[in-house]
Design a protein that fits this description.
Length: 196
Protein backbone atom coordinates (compact mmCIF):
# COMPACT_ATOMS: atom_id res chain seq x y z
CA UNK A 1 0.00 0.00 0.00
CA UNK A 2 2.87 2.36 0.84
CA UNK A 3 4.47 1.71 -2.56
CA UNK A 4 1.18 2.52 -4.31
CA UNK A 5 0.85 5.82 -2.40
CA UNK A 6 4.45 6.83 -3.27
CA UNK A 7 3.94 5.91 -6.95
CA UNK A 8 0.70 7.90 -7.04
CA UNK A 9 2.45 10.93 -5.51
CA UNK A 10 5.29 10.74 -8.05
CA UNK A 11 2.80 10.38 -10.92
CA UNK A 12 0.78 13.39 -9.72
CA UNK A 13 3.94 15.52 -9.49
CA UNK A 14 4.86 14.49 -13.02
CA UNK A 15 1.43 15.43 -14.32
CA UNK A 16 1.56 18.84 -12.62
CA UNK A 17 5.07 19.51 -13.94
CA UNK A 18 4.10 18.69 -17.54
CA UNK A 19 0.90 20.71 -17.38
CA UNK A 20 -1.48 17.74 -17.82
CA UNK A 21 -5.03 18.26 -16.68
CA UNK A 22 -5.67 14.78 -15.30
CA UNK A 23 -7.05 14.84 -11.80
CA UNK A 24 -4.43 14.01 -9.21
CA UNK A 25 -5.24 11.89 -6.21
CA UNK A 26 -6.05 13.77 -3.03
CA UNK A 27 -3.01 14.85 -1.09
CA UNK A 28 -2.48 13.20 2.27
CA UNK A 29 -3.54 15.32 5.24
CA UNK A 30 -0.88 17.72 6.46
CA UNK A 31 -0.19 18.84 9.99
CA UNK A 32 0.57 22.40 8.72
CA UNK A 33 -2.41 24.78 8.81
CA UNK A 34 -3.92 25.55 5.41
CA UNK A 35 -3.44 29.04 4.01
CA UNK A 36 -6.59 30.95 3.19
CA UNK A 37 -4.83 33.10 0.56
CA UNK A 38 -5.55 32.11 -3.05
CA UNK A 39 -2.66 30.72 -5.07
CA UNK A 40 -2.82 33.70 -7.45
CA UNK A 41 -2.41 36.39 -4.77
CA UNK A 42 0.31 38.98 -5.38
CA UNK A 43 3.52 38.55 -3.41
CA UNK A 44 3.98 40.78 -0.39
CA UNK A 45 6.07 43.93 -0.80
CA UNK A 46 9.75 43.18 -0.27
CA UNK A 47 11.17 44.20 3.08
CA UNK A 48 13.98 46.82 3.08
CA UNK A 49 16.56 44.08 3.55
CA UNK A 50 15.36 42.38 0.37
CA UNK A 51 15.21 45.54 -1.73
CA UNK A 52 17.97 48.00 -2.54
CA UNK A 53 20.05 49.06 0.47
CA UNK A 54 18.76 52.18 2.19
CA UNK A 55 20.67 55.35 1.30
CA UNK A 56 22.81 56.87 4.07
CA UNK A 57 22.25 60.35 5.45
CA UNK A 58 24.59 63.27 4.67
CA UNK A 59 26.93 62.66 7.62
CA UNK A 60 27.31 58.92 7.03
CA UNK A 61 27.75 59.48 3.28
CA UNK A 62 30.55 62.02 3.90
CA UNK A 63 32.27 59.76 6.43
CA UNK A 64 32.08 56.77 4.07
CA UNK A 65 33.66 58.83 1.26
CA UNK A 66 36.85 59.12 3.35
CA UNK A 67 37.84 62.64 2.23
CA UNK A 68 35.93 64.47 4.95
CA UNK A 69 37.55 63.41 8.24
CA UNK A 70 38.21 67.01 9.27
CA UNK A 71 34.63 67.99 8.44
CA UNK A 72 33.30 65.06 10.49
CA UNK A 73 35.51 66.08 13.43
CA UNK A 74 34.32 69.68 13.14
CA UNK A 75 30.65 68.66 12.95
CA UNK A 76 31.09 66.57 16.10
CA UNK A 77 32.86 69.41 17.94
CA UNK A 78 30.07 71.83 16.96
CA UNK A 79 27.31 69.39 17.95
CA UNK A 80 25.84 69.44 14.42
CA UNK A 81 25.97 65.72 13.63
CA UNK A 82 22.39 65.03 14.76
CA UNK A 83 21.12 68.11 12.88
CA UNK A 84 22.62 66.92 9.60
CA UNK A 85 21.29 63.42 10.26
CA UNK A 86 17.82 64.96 10.51
CA UNK A 87 15.13 64.82 7.82
CA UNK A 88 16.34 67.87 5.88
CA UNK A 89 16.59 68.12 3.02
CA UNK A 90 19.93 69.90 3.08
CA UNK A 91 22.49 70.87 0.47
CA UNK A 92 26.00 70.76 1.88
CA UNK A 93 28.99 72.33 0.16
CA UNK A 94 31.54 70.06 1.81
CA UNK A 95 35.22 71.02 2.10
CA UNK A 96 37.64 68.11 1.77
CA UNK A 97 40.46 67.43 4.22
CA UNK A 98 42.80 69.17 1.73
CA UNK A 99 40.50 72.20 1.73
CA UNK A 100 40.73 72.51 5.51
CA UNK A 101 44.53 72.11 5.26
CA UNK A 102 44.64 75.29 3.11
CA UNK A 103 43.40 77.44 6.01
CA UNK A 104 46.06 79.68 7.56
CA UNK A 105 48.03 77.98 10.34
CA UNK A 106 46.11 77.86 13.61
CA UNK A 107 42.73 78.75 12.07
CA UNK A 108 41.24 75.26 12.33
CA UNK A 109 42.57 74.73 15.87
CA UNK A 110 41.09 78.06 16.87
CA UNK A 111 37.71 77.15 15.38
CA UNK A 112 37.67 73.76 17.10
CA UNK A 113 38.13 75.57 20.44
CA UNK A 114 35.38 78.13 19.73
CA UNK A 115 32.08 76.28 19.29
CA UNK A 116 30.10 79.40 18.35
CA UNK A 117 32.54 80.41 15.58
CA UNK A 118 32.85 76.80 14.38
CA UNK A 119 29.06 76.43 14.19
CA UNK A 120 28.86 79.67 12.21
CA UNK A 121 31.47 78.47 9.68
CA UNK A 122 29.93 75.01 9.29
CA UNK A 123 26.33 76.19 8.88
CA UNK A 124 27.61 78.67 6.29
CA UNK A 125 28.28 75.59 4.11
CA UNK A 126 24.67 74.38 4.37
CA UNK A 127 21.68 75.51 2.30
CA UNK A 128 18.09 74.53 3.10
CA UNK A 129 16.48 72.26 0.53
CA UNK A 130 18.00 70.00 -2.08
CA UNK A 131 19.84 72.01 -4.74
CA UNK A 132 21.23 69.82 -7.51
CA UNK A 133 24.17 70.78 -9.76
CA UNK A 134 21.86 71.52 -12.69
CA UNK A 135 20.15 74.18 -10.54
CA UNK A 136 23.43 75.63 -9.27
CA UNK A 137 24.68 75.93 -12.87
CA UNK A 138 21.75 78.23 -13.61
CA UNK A 139 22.49 80.54 -10.67
CA UNK A 140 25.38 82.56 -12.15
CA UNK A 141 25.79 85.80 -10.20
CA UNK A 142 23.14 84.90 -7.63
CA UNK A 143 23.59 85.19 -3.89
CA UNK A 144 22.63 82.03 -2.01
CA UNK A 145 21.34 82.26 1.56
CA UNK A 146 22.86 79.74 3.95
CA UNK A 147 21.52 78.16 7.13
CA UNK A 148 23.99 80.40 9.00
CA UNK A 149 22.11 83.44 7.66
CA UNK A 150 24.85 84.86 5.46
CA UNK A 151 25.16 84.52 1.69
CA UNK A 152 27.76 83.43 -0.83
CA UNK A 153 27.80 84.23 -4.54
CA UNK A 154 27.70 81.61 -7.30
CA UNK A 155 29.78 82.13 -10.42
CA UNK A 156 29.57 79.86 -13.47
CA UNK A 157 32.16 80.07 -16.23
CA UNK A 158 32.83 77.50 -18.97
CA UNK A 159 30.67 74.99 -17.12
CA UNK A 160 32.71 75.32 -13.90
CA UNK A 161 31.13 76.57 -10.70
CA UNK A 162 32.87 78.67 -8.05
CA UNK A 163 31.56 80.23 -4.86
CA UNK A 164 32.70 83.51 -3.35
CA UNK A 165 32.18 83.79 0.39
CA UNK A 166 31.44 86.78 2.62
CA UNK A 167 35.17 87.29 3.26
CA UNK A 168 35.88 87.58 -0.48
CA UNK A 169 37.51 84.13 -0.87
CA UNK A 170 36.63 82.00 -3.88
CA UNK A 171 36.41 78.19 -3.81
CA UNK A 172 35.67 75.76 -6.63
CA UNK A 173 33.02 73.06 -6.77
CA UNK A 174 34.99 69.95 -7.74
CA UNK A 175 32.37 67.19 -7.45
CA UNK A 176 28.60 67.39 -7.50
CA UNK A 177 25.38 65.55 -6.75
CA UNK A 178 26.50 63.06 -4.13
CA UNK A 179 23.02 62.10 -3.02
CA UNK A 180 22.05 61.11 0.49
CA UNK A 181 18.76 60.15 2.11
CA UNK A 182 18.27 63.68 3.44
CA UNK A 183 19.87 65.85 0.77
CA UNK A 184 22.86 66.27 -1.48
CA UNK A 185 26.58 67.01 -1.13
CA UNK A 186 28.71 69.11 -3.47
CA UNK A 187 32.45 68.91 -2.82
CA UNK A 188 34.49 72.12 -2.68
CA UNK A 189 38.25 72.70 -2.64
CA UNK A 190 38.29 75.40 0.02
CA UNK A 191 36.54 76.47 3.21
CA UNK A 192 33.86 79.15 2.94
CA UNK A 193 34.06 81.86 5.58
CA UNK A 194 31.16 84.10 6.52
CA UNK A 195 31.57 87.85 6.64
CA UNK A 196 32.97 88.79 10.04
Amino acid sequence: MKRFAIAAAILSLGLIATGCTAAAPAAPPSSAPASSAPATSAPASPSPSMSEPMMSDIVDTAVAAGDFKTLATALTAAGLVETLKGPGPFTVFAPTDEAFAKLPAGTLDGLLKDKKALTSVLTYHVVSGEVMASQVAGMNGEKVKTVQGGTFTVKVKDGKVSLTDGAGNTVNVIKTDITASNGVIHVIDGVLLPKS
